[in-house]
């Protein structure tokens, strides 16, 4: 217990770093995912293939391997940057693929009848995309987008073993010097993550119930 | 030569799904103001034919033209042509993210560039005409099937189409709602609209059609007036079909 | 591919316009590729000598041994998670509140935690509390099972809820009770239903098993790291590429199996 009280400020700063890392990496990943999703739903077959190839490759390489590459291999190549920045890039390369899939699944869930109705009324391809596909598709995508973000927050913990002092990394450092408080430190860390992920999961479930259009 | 009053002209159309020949040498002319009802067993290609008329289904060969204009291959001019062809689907296909009123105003504003106020006034008029004016601010999912289909008809009419295509408009409705939708369609036939209607409602075909087209296995087997078709059909296949449905 | 056709089939003019756009976009893309390739070459990363390390039999053997360890962790984890997940699902669906409520809290809480925290909880926590040593293999497996079983219990529950209600009633009417209803009537159907789901969980677990790297269990990623350590930095990129490719191949194969299964079972 003492280990927690004495180090509450360090833990808090780790928690805030987790929040910051998640927010920044989440933002860049979401942005990357939107671009990939744009490729995936474009009418250009080459762009669609590029998007599919990217997702198939990057999604299937484990997060730990992505971070390993950024933090251990890039410096060997002479590229040096703070761990925090490298972690953001590594997470972004991985999670862009997941955000892309989240948007795609939302678009795929649109009934083909919606598209046919729009075409039959004389709307052009781009109008159908902008006025029918995107409003419904993005709305369908909200729950998977939240769930992807939850997964991203949990994955940022791996950056802790690669030298980023976010919540999990902070915990590891504290365990090193307080080996009698292992369980307490892990409990507090777990609570820290739950404080973010559980409300988000509840929100995703609530949105899912609300979003469902019945067709 | 094409008859001057031909509104829809289908000539030598063939279509395959892979190796499956869905439409076999289809020829059909629909005159201005004519109501053509397409009958036939399910799987005979009625929907496919109906959907080729506005190129929701592309064809492999043959030619289709509407009001003398061949169906364009490019999507720009195709959209232009489609805006003059109303279509009503079996599954209604109202836009799920828009209210009833927005559904009806949508294409006039986006495609015809009408002023919202004008589009709105016209939409309300049409919704009242099909008897769902009171529902205008609801979402489609809050309406019964019969109400949704009537909104879908109003949505198509809002574009002042030259032609209306109906693909089994009452087939997914509960029996008690079929009449309210058929009444709206019958009303339209009286207004001189050119219509192609795929349906299993024999009563409707008998009273409202100018001509009946009977399809089986991707072919047009028989074309005749309703009286002739229902009382004195020429082919065995038609007789067999009628014995099952009547 | 997309399931819905988002665009009308393009006409000849439009196809030409699309191809033109592809060419226009290809110019900067090509420039980018050339830049990357020259940079990599200047760094000596494209040396064929360095890449030929991937044909070295010792390297191949050590990476494949790593892959085998990865698959071993994944396989054991999935099987255990299946059993624990089923128990959790039954617990959560139980009519006994003292059973269903804690199970529910357990499942929700675990699903909100990072897997790496659970792996460390076992790896450091078990020795700290009990004084017993735990092997890295079991620390990894148990940590992953804690998370995966919670996640699979939700799949099981969805599977049970999707069963027609009549099934259970018919079983009761036939006099088949309790455990037998479950074992012979409900479970086979649920397993059948969620089988594709289970295979895609295998993909998740295969990737998650790379956490063995951080606790020192020599699976694929760690064996790659050890090879780089041993051979030297100039081999870092080729070896990493080999490791990444193995993950991609295994995961794509599993996803493919899952897709085939879900099509077959439909
Ligand atoms: N997209 C498709 N791909 C392959 N076969 C199809 C497709 N759409 C329809 N068909 C087949 O074409 C035939 C005609 O279908 P359809 O025009 O819907 O018949 P109908 O409306 O007369 O019931 C059916 O046998 C159907 O299975
Ligand atoms: Mg049909």
Spell out the key features of this protein.
heterotrimer; A: 215 residues; mainly alpha; MetI-like fold; 9 helices; 80% helix; C: 266 residues; binds magnesium ion; cell membrane (chain B); AAA+_ATPase (chain B); ATPase-coupled polar amino acid-transporter activity (chain B); ATP binding (chain B); ABC-type polar-amino-acid transporter (chain B)
How many domains make up the coordinates of chain C?
1
Mean pLDDT across residues of chain C = 89
Low-confidence stretches of chain A: none
Main β-sheet of chain C: number of strands, strand sense, barrel status?
A: none
What is the CATH class name of chain A? Mainly Alpha
Summed up, the domain count of chain A is: 1
Structural class of chain A, by secondary structure, is mainly alpha
Number of discrete helical segments of chain C: 11
Order of helices and strands of chain A: HHHHHHHHH
CATH architecture of chain A, by name, is Orthogonal Bundle
GO molecular function (chain B): ATP binding; ATP hydrolysis activity; ATPase-coupled polar amino acid-transporter activity
Membrane topology (chain B): Peripheral membrane protein
Domain ABC transporter (chain B): 8-242
Family (chain B): Belongs to the ABC transporter superfamily.
Report on this model:
The complex is a heterotrimer of chains A (215), B (246) and C (266). Chain A has 215 residues and is an all-alpha fold. Chain A has one domain (2-214): MetI-like fold (Orthogonal Bundle). In chain A, 80% of the residues lie in helices and 0% in strands. Chain A has helices at 2-6, 8-40, 45-58, 63-76, 83-108, 112-120, 125-155, 167-177, 182-211. In chain A, helix 7 (125-155) runs antiparallel to helix 9 (182-211). Chain B is of the alpha/beta class. Chain B has a domain at 85-160. Chain B has helices at 46-52, 75-82, 100-110, 116-129, 145-157, 175-190, 202-208, 226-231, 236-245; strands spanning 6-17, 20-31, 35-39, 61-66, 69-70, 85-88, 163-167, 194-198, 211-216, 219-224. In chain B, the strands form two sheets. Chain B has a six-stranded mixed sheet with strand order 6-7-8-3-9-10, sandwiched between helices. Chain B has a four-stranded antiparallel sheet with strand order 2-1-4-5, covered by helices on one side. In chain B, a hairpin with a 2-residue loop joins strand 1 (6-17) and strand 2. Chain C contains eleven helices and no strands. The two termini of chain C are 19 Å apart. By secondary structure, chain C is mainly α. Chain C has one domain: MetI-like (MetI-like fold, Orthogonal Bundle). In chain C, helix 3 packs antiparallel against helix 8 (178-208), helix 3 (57-93) runs antiparallel to helix 10 (220-231) and helix 7 runs antiparallel to helix 8. Chain C is flat, with a radius of gyration of 25 Å. Chains in contact: A-B, A-C, B-C. At the A-C interface, helix 3, helix 4, helix 5, helix 6 and helix 7 of A face helix 1, helix 4, helix 5, helix 8 and helix 10 of C. Bound molecules: adenosine-5'-diphosphate and magnesium ion (MG). Magnesium ion binds at residues 46-47, 168 of chain B. Chain C: Residues 67-258 form the ABC transmembrane type-1 domain. Chain C: It comes from Arthrobacter psychrolactophilus. Chain C: This is Amino acid ABC transporter permease. Chain C: GO terms for molecular function: transmembrane transporter activity.
């Amino acid at each position: 217990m003492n280990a927690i009280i004495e180090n509450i400020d360090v833990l808090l700063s780790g928690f805030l770093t987790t929040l910051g890392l998640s927010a920044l990496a989440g933002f860049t990943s979401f942005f990357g995912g939107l671009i990939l999703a744009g490729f995936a739903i474009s009418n250009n077959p080459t762009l669609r293939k590029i998007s599919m190839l990217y997702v198939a490759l990057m999604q299937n390489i484990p997060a730990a391997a992505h971070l390993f590459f950024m933090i251990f291999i890039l410096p060997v190549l002479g590229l040096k940057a703070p761990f925090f920045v490298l972690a953001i890039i590594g997470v972004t390369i991985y999670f862009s693929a997941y955000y892309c899939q989240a948007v795609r699944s939302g678009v795929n869930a649109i009934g083909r009848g919606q598209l046919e109705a729009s075409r039959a009324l004389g709307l052009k391809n781009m109008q159908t995309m902008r006025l029918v596909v995107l409003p419904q598709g993005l709305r369908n995508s909200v729950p998977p987008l939240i769930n992807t973000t939850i997964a991203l927050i949990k994955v940022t913990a791996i950056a802790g073993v690669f030298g980023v002092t976010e919540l999990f990394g902070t915990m590891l450092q504290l365990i090193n010097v307080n080996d009698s408080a292992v369980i307490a430190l892990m409990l507090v860390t777990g609570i820290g993550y739950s404080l973010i992920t559980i409300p988000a999961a509840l929100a995703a479930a609530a949105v899912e119930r609300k979003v469902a259009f019945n067709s | 030569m094409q008859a001057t009053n031909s509104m829809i002209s289908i000539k030598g159309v063939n279509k395959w799904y892979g190796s499956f020949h869905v439409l076999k040498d289809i020829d059909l002319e629909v005159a201005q103001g004519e109501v053509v009802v397409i009958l036939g067993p399910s799987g005979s290609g009625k929907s496919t034919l109906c959907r080729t008329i506005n190129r929701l289904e592309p064809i492999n060969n043959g030619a289709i033209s509407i009001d003398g204009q061949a169906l364009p291959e490019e999507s720009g001019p195709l959209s232009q042509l489609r805006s003059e062809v109303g279509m009503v689907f079996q599954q209604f296909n109202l836009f799920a993210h828009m209210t009833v009123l927005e559904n009806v105003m949508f294409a006039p504003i986006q495609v015809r560039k009408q002023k919202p106020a004008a589009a709105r006034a016209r939409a309300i008029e049409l919704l009242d005409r099909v008897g769902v004016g009171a529902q205008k601010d609801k979402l489609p999912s809050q309406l019964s099937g019969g109400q949704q289909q009537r909104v879908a008809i109003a949505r198509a009419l809002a574009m002042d189409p030259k032609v209306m295509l109906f693909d089994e408009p009452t087939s997914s409705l509960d029996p008690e709602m079929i009449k309210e939708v058929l009444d709206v369609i019958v009303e339209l036939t009286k207004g001189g609209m050119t219509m192609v209607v795929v349906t299993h409602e024999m009563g409707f075909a008998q009273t409202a059609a100018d001509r009946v087209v009977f399809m089986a296995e991707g072919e047009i087997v028989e074309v005749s007036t309703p009286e002739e078709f229902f009382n004195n059909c020429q082919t065995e296949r038609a007789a067999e079909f009628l014995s099952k449905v009547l | 591919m997309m399931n819905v056709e988002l665009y009308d089939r393009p006409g000849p003019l439009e196809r030409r316009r699309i191809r033109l756009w592809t060419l226009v976009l290809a110019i900067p893309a090509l420039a980018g590729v050339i830049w990357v390739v020259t940079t990599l070459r200047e760094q000596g990363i494209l040396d064929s000598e360095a890449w030929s390390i991937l044909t070295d039999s010792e390297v191949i053997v050590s990476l494949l041994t790593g892959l085998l360890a990865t698959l071993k962790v994944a396989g054991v984890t999935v099987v255990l998670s299946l059993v624990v997940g089923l128990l959790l699902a039954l617990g959560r669906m139980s009519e006994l509140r003292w059973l269903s409520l804690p199970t529910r809290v357990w499942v929700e809480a675990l699903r909100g935690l990072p897997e790496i925290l659970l792996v460390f909880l076992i790896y450091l926590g078990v020795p700290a509390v009990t004084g017993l040593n735990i092997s890295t293999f079991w620390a990894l497996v148990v940590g992953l099972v804690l998370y995966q079983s919670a996640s699979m219990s939700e799949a099981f529950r969805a599977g049970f809820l999707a069963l027609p209600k009549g099934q259970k009633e018919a079983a009761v009417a036939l006099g088949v009770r309790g455990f037998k209803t479950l074992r012979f009537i409900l479970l086979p159907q649920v397993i059948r239903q969620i089988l594709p789901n289970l295979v895609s969980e295998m993909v998740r677990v295969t990737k998650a098993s790379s956490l063995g790297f951080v606790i020192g269990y020599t699976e694929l990623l760690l064996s790659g790291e050890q090879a780089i350590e041993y051979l030297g930095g100039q081999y870092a990129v080729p070896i990493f590429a080999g490791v990444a490719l193995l993950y991609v191949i295994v995961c794509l194969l599993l996803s493919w199996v899952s897709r085939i299964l879900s099509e077959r079972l439909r």
